[in-house]
Amino acid sequence: MKFNTKTIHGGQSHEASTGAVVPPIFQTSTYAQPSPGVNKGYEYSRITNPSRTALQNAFAAIENGTHGFAFSSGIAAVDCVLRLLSPGDEIIAGKDIYGGSYRMFTQLFQKYGLKFHFADMAKPENVTNVITSNTKLIWLETPSNPLLKIVNIQAIASATKKVNPNILIAVDNTFATPYLQKPLDLGADIIMHSATKYLSGHSDVVIGALIVKNEQLAKDIHFIQYAAGAIAGPIDCFLALRGIKTLHVRMQRHCENAKAVANYLVKHPKVASVYYPGLENHSNHTIAKEQMNDFGGMVSFKLKDNNKEAATQFIENAKLFTLAESLGGVESLMSYPISMSHASLPDAEKEVLGISHSLIRLSIGIEDIDDLLKDLEQALS
Description:
The protein is an alpha/beta fold. It is built from 14 helices and twelve strands. It has helices at residues 3-9, 50-62, 74-82, 99-109, 124-128, 153-163, 177-180, 215-228, 234-244, 247-267, 285-291, 308-317, 347-353, 369-380; strands spanning 67-71, 90-94, 115-119, 135-141, 168-172, 190-193, 208-212, 271-275, 298-303, 322-323, 333-335, 359-363. The protein has a seven-stranded mixed sheet with strand order 1-7-6-5-4-2-3, with helices on both faces. Strands 8-9-12-11-10 form a five-stranded mixed sheet, covered by helices on one side. Helix 7 links the parallel strand 5 (168-172) and strand 6. Helix 2 packs parallel to helix 9. The longest helix is centred in the last third of the chain and has 21 residues, at 247-267. The chain is globular, with a radius of gyration of 21 Å. Belongs to the trans-sulfuration enzymes family. Its cofactor is pyridoxal 5'-phosphate. Its EC number is 2.5.1.48.
């Protein structure tokens, strides 16, 4: 199947007992067993649930994996990946990553003996130079949050595996989605999604995903999933699966609108800089063109007035763009990273990364582009 068909049919089948076209919500915690050790493949919903199975099969299909796993949130999926490791193991992550991942790395797992290194991943050697005999995981995020930096997945995976083929490559594919890039095809071992965002697409569910294609890795992840218990519930699975069925058409419009917004902001006299991988002056535009099918629905920019007051005025003036956490829904949202998504970063780190008081992150929805541009114009003016 091609991708647009996979989002609707990939990994799916009609429900066996009734023929239901849409997998139903199996709102049950347990399952009848006719005899000890005899069941129909389900025993207890923390271990497996038919609604979750349907979603997990869809996750695997759209990412060209063999096994998908649904978690209670994206950060619960990150937690599962780190539980694959042991005290003393080392992880190399990008400097410009989601603040929640940074917080989990440094404030939770560091005290349990994991060691984290944060590198500028613009070049593969910046990663390989940090690898030691204890390195077990490389954590990539591309495009990154919030400055939309691009990491060359294939180059870093290839360079890392040459040093040590046992090092795991994990990619946060939340911003790109499999509509734009498929990290498993580029050498990654694990894909993570905050499926709350584009995969679900309607701002009505919190859910996370992991996808792999290695059998032993799948077994290890499934053990952690049911042993730790951070599973996605059946209603959340139903909503996420419904969202995936329109992922391809939504992403097409997200990308179209984001390009128009980025090109508009570049020309605006009150805007200092625009971060969007589709712009030719983006530092990794060439890699983005090679690695991605399009450039996504996220745009970040800085105002020329580098102060909180100017940013606040713009945010409060906007009408269609809603100030809110999260992203990837059908409606356009804006975020103020310095005090929202990246509030947990130390101030010194924010300054180094360029997360300033004038930085605003936009999640471009699928509204009419003329209305979005008019809203930006009146908010800026």
